[in-house]
């Protein structure tokens, strides 16, 4: 159905975006008043796009399943947002941000998109400061920066450990202004269940009012999907429990190609799993790796004693600690990229050095930072020879000012004081680099269907660097989509309103109604969560931090069997009418059960290791990812053919003209 044309402009890399903006078609203000746009999702990507498009004059409808746009999962982002403003004077530049992002993604992202992201990053900070986002500031009043993994400069702007929340409040304020002006119609507690195509173009959606249960038809001249990632296919992840793939997957079934589904990020800094009772995992911000040192005991006997409760981490002498990231990657140390840090933690725990009861945890220790900051603060206070207790108290004050809310959250969950004893962390599913394939204009293979933020595949390759998710979401929403969607909509200025009483809407709504109705025709006894947990275990064990050919083949078979059992035996109580949270979950898990199989198929097809995709058969002698650039230097874009196992592969060859493609090294 779609043609894989990336539409990357010609010319030098640094000129592509400027030239493209100068050459694409525009819509004049009078005509924008006659054009409708639907935006699904109100996180940073969706809210920023909605506010900007409405400000430009378009009529915008936004949809979110939460009770307020402010509750989008973007609020969970903690550590910061990248921008190449070089406030630290440490040599940063848009090119260096571009290079770090390309390298961090293990050379599996599109050069032109990444350079545009680096260009626009400097504008994002100015936009957010103007909105009143309370970024941290240095003593002199200038905006402060800290470092994140995979870089050698400080380019991450932050608002304590609440950066996502503060940025979303800024975007929501801009969005709320347009709601009061009547330019945005906000539909909360609504879930998109299908995409409506009219003459091959995206012209609307079928949504369900989650309070009344009513199916609704909404039309527009273009549809923007900003619905986030699909990490909850693993059941346990750092995502909000409601995060799902339905909007993107429904578009995929209508003809939008799904790109690189196996590129999923495992975050190294999460609170470890404590038991089968859990429904989600909690992220500890990567910003903690600025000051925390990661270690395990050097001796197996000490690790065993800690697991059995006979020894405490504070009793392990410094010479008996293995700071394994500093040992293996001296240039970057604890600030290696997330995929590298995650695999290193798994390797140590698999070797028997894990430190919690399950053996799947390592330490994140702040004692050295507390001592360092304490001595520094004591000197600034004129204390020339402070005792240890004073240094510790002063150091803890500094750490509390930087990370206090994160430390408080950890203590509430684990019931241990991280100022006094090291945090325990372990990798967990966090972010999805894969998503709907989009061209340079952020348009999917369905004309009129656009995709922004984490829901698309475009900027991060096989591994996202920390603090780049917020950067991409806001760049897409504030600075990219408002230009590129105008080029498409310039052809719709005479179209007029899109009617919803057409055959296309009739048929799509009937299909949605039939799909939901089937959940009440089964006679099984198993809950939706029963199947979701089973799927999650398959995904984690066979498609998680490491994969191999036999495991992936088993996963595809097991997921197909589980999906068949689900459709025949799931128990969904109640009815379609009114509020029914089990029905909501059933629809989402049904889509996860299809996505999971495509995920495994994509991982099986890619016979190499790169970024978050680690195939055990393809690694260097010292356990690093081993790419195959001759065979797999492309984006895998899958076309839906009726069954995930039979999905048709399309390839977008990646061309690198401005960076040298080489084996990543953080040593």
From TrEMBL:
Swiss-Prot/TrEMBL cofactor(s): FAD
Domain FAD-dependent oxidoreductase 2 FAD-binding, first and last residues per copy: 36-470
Keyword Flavoprotein assigned: yes
Domain Fumarate reductase/succinate dehydrogenase flavoprotein-like C-terminal: 532-666
Keywords for the protein's UniProt record, in alphabetical order: Flavoprotein, Oxidoreductase
InterPro entries: FAD-dep_OxRdtase_2_FAD-bd (IPR003953), FAD/NAD-bd_sf (IPR036188), Fum_R/Succ_DH_flav-like_C_sf (IPR037099), Fum_Rdtase/Succ_DH_flav-like_C (IPR015939), SdhA/FrdA/AprA (IPR030664), Succ_DH/Fum_Rdt_flav_su (IPR011280), Succ_DH/fumarate_Rdtase_cat_sf (IPR027477)
Pfam families to which the protein is assigned, alphabetical: FAD_binding_2, Succ_DH_flav_C
SUPFAM superfamilies: FAD/NAD(P)-binding domain, Succinate dehydrogenase/fumarate reductase flavoprotein C-terminal domain, Succinate dehydrogenase/fumarate reductase flavoprotein, catalytic domain
Stated name of the protein: Fumarate reductase/succinate dehydrogenase flavoprotein subunit
Lineage: Bacteria, Pseudomonadati, Bacteroidota, Flavobacteriia, Flavobacteriales
């Amino acid at each position: 159905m779609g043609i894989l044309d990336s539409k990357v402009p010609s010319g030098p890399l640094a000129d592509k975006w400027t030239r493209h903006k100068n050459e694409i078609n525009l819509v004049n203000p009078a005509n924008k008043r006659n054009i409708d746009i639907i935006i699904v999702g109100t996180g940073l990507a969706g809210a920023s796009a909605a506010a900007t498009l409405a400000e430009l004059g378009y009529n915008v409808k936004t949809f979110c399943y939460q009770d307020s746009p402010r509750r989008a999962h973007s609020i969970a982002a903690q550590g910061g947002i990248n921008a190449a403003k070089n406030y630290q004077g440490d040599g940063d530049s848009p090119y260096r941000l571009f290079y770090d992002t390309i390298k961090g993604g293990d050379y599996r992202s599109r050069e032109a998109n990444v350079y545009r992201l680096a260009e626009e990053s400097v504008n994002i900070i100015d936009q957010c400061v103007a909105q009143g986002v309370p970024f941290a500031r240095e003593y002199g009043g200038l905006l402060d920066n800290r470092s994140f993994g995979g870089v050698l400069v400080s380019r991450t702007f932050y608002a304590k450990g609440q950066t996502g929340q503060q940025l979303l409040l800024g975007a929501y304020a801009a969005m709320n202004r347009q709601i009061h002006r009547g330019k945005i119609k906000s539909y909360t507690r609504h879930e998109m269940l299908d995409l409506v195509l009219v003459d091959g173009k995206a012209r609307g959606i079928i949504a369900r009012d989650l309070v009344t249960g009513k199916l609704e038809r909404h039309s527009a001249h273009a549809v923007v999907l900003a619905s986030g990632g699909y990490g909850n296919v693993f059941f346990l992840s750092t995502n909000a429990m409601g995060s799902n793939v339905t909007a993107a997957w429904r578009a995929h079934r209508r003809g939008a190609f799904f790109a690189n589904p196996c590129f999923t990020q495992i975050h190294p800094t999460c609170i470890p799993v404590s038991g089968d009772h859990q429904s989600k995992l909690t992220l500890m911000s990567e910003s903690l790796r600025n000051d925390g040192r990661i270690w395990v005991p050097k001796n197996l006997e000490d690790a065993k004693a800690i697991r059995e409760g006979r020894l405490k981490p504070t009793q392990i002498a410094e010479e008996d600690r293995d700071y394994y990231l500093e040992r293996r990657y001296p240039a970057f140390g604890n600030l290696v990229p997330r995929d590298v840090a995650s695999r290193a933690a798994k390797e140590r725990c698999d070797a028997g050095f894990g430190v919690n009861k399950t053996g799947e945890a390592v330490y994140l220790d702040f004692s050295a930072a507390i001592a360092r900051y304490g001595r520094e603060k004591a000197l600034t206070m004129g204390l020339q020879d402070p005792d240890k207790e004073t240094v510790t108290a002063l150091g803890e004050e500094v750490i509390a000012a930087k990370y206090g809310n994160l430390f408080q959250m950890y203590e509430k969950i684990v019931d241990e004081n991280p100022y006094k004893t090291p945090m325990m962390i372990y990798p967990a599913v966090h972010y999805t680099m894969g998503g709907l394939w989009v061209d340079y204009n952020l348009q999917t293979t369905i004309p009129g269907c656009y995709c922004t933020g984490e829901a698309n595949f475009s900027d991060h390759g096989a591994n996202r660097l920390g603090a780049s998710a917020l950067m991409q979401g806001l760049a897409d929403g504030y600075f990219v989509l408002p230009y590129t969607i105008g080029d498409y909509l310039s052809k719709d200025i005479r179209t007029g309103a899109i009617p919803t009483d057409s055959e296309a809407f009739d048929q799509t709504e009937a299909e949605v109604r039939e799909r939901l109705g089937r959940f009440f025709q089964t006679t099984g006894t198993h809950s939706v969560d029963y199947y979701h947990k089973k799927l999650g275990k398959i995904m984690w064990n066979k498609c998680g931090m490491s994969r191999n050919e036999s495991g992936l083949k088993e996963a595809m078979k097991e997921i197909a069997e589980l999906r068949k059992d689900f459709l025949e035996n799931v128990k969904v109580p109640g009815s379609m009418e009114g509020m029914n949270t089990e029905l909501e979950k059933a629809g989402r898990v049904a889509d996860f059960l299809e996505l999971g199989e495509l995920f495994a198929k994509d991982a099986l097809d890619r016979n190499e290791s790169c970024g978050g995709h680690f195939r055990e058969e393809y690694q260097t002698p010292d356990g690093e990812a081993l790419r195959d650039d001759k065979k797999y230097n492309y984006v895998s874009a899958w076309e839906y053919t009726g069954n995930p196992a039979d999905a048709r592969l399309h390839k977008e060859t990646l061309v690198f003209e401005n960076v040298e493609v080489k084996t990543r090294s953080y040593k």
